[in-house]
Amino acid sequence: MLTLPSILADSHARLVACSAPREESRAAFREQFGGNAYSSIEDLASDLDVEAVYIATPHQMHREHAEILAAGGKHILVEKPLAISMADADAIVAATERAGVTLITGPSHSFDQPIVAARRLIDEGKFGRVRMVHAFNYTDFLYRPRRPEELVTEQGGGVVFSQAVHQVDVVRLLMGGKAISVTAATGGWDEKRPTEGAYAALITFDGGRFANLVYSGYAHYDSDVLQDNVGELGTEKDPKNYGAARRALATVSSPEEEAALKSRRTFGAVETPPAAPYPEHFGPVIVSCDRADLRITAKAVEIWGDIDRETIKINADPAPRAEVLEALYHSIRNKKHPPQTGAWGAVSLEICHAILESARTQTHVMLRQ
Q1: H-type helices in the chain, by residue range?
Q2: Fewest CB within 10 A of the end CB: N or C in the chain?
Q3: Would you say 228 and 235 are in contact if contact means Cβ atoms under 8 Å apart?
Q4: What is the pTM of this model?
Q5: At the top level of CATH, which class does the domain 109-315 belong to?
Q6: Element (H or E) spanning 36, and its range?
Q7: CATH 3.30.360.10 in the chain, residues?
Q8: Residues 36-52: pLDDT tens digits?
């Protein structure tokens, strides 16, 4: 749903088919786009007009859907996280490699325009090597409408699988190189939402470099105030709406009602949102290099150099997720792959598991080499 405006605005893409369990969504797709709308993923995989598929199903379904689509010769853009278990993630990567199809993990916030702009500045080399990244985000994530499994960690619920993977992707792209180890703590402080709602993680990288990640989804402090009150999806936030997530949740009295509240946001249930006036973001990020610090906001990259300061403004693309769609196009047509391949997604997922393991065992966790 959130990626739809960018797909519609992309000159390389044409919507020709979908697969959805809800007849309401399938009917809306047929009416709006005139394409085929299937109730099964197998039928979508058999459609000869389909070249690439965006998988935006719940995490636990990614492996089954990706394997079916890869066997059907479809290129794949799969939502983060790549899967829940490492076994499933490795199986997805293997299936796409066997089939010879493209696999990109996204959209994630590592494709955001300000993050990409900062990476380009780093690649110019004048600031030296990245030594440290600090990323933090305080949101209302845990109190948005959830299906029951989204509050069960073992089923991919909580903020680590759904939110840490964004921060991990962001710091990995900015840092470059290989992640080595993770030390972390997590917080689960609401018995009515019995999963992780917060975490703090230190990720070490090759060369003695490191990144610090902090996240809270407990719907109190809102770090978007440090982003000029621009929300995650690039829209301006009205301070009068503070507390809206908790107020909406208070209107439901059962898990079924909460799941129904969430389903009202699916395609066909609400109108497609207009393009946002600002780029998407995932909270404040500060990158420390040898000769400058870069502060990344929703609207700009601020350069704090040895002597001078400079602000490079970022103009929002009418298609906010154009970067990931451009990457998909070049990966398929020109074999020019972005960093965020399936293998990349598997490493980011491994780091998420390491956050949970480190918090559970109170130990330093080494990553697969």
Answers
A1: 4-9, 23-33, 41-46, 62-71, 86-99, 113-123, 159, 165-175, 244-249, 255-263, 322-334, 342-361
A2: C
A3: no
A4: 0.95
A5: alpha beta
A6: strand 36-38
A7: 109-315
A8: 999 999 999 999 999 99
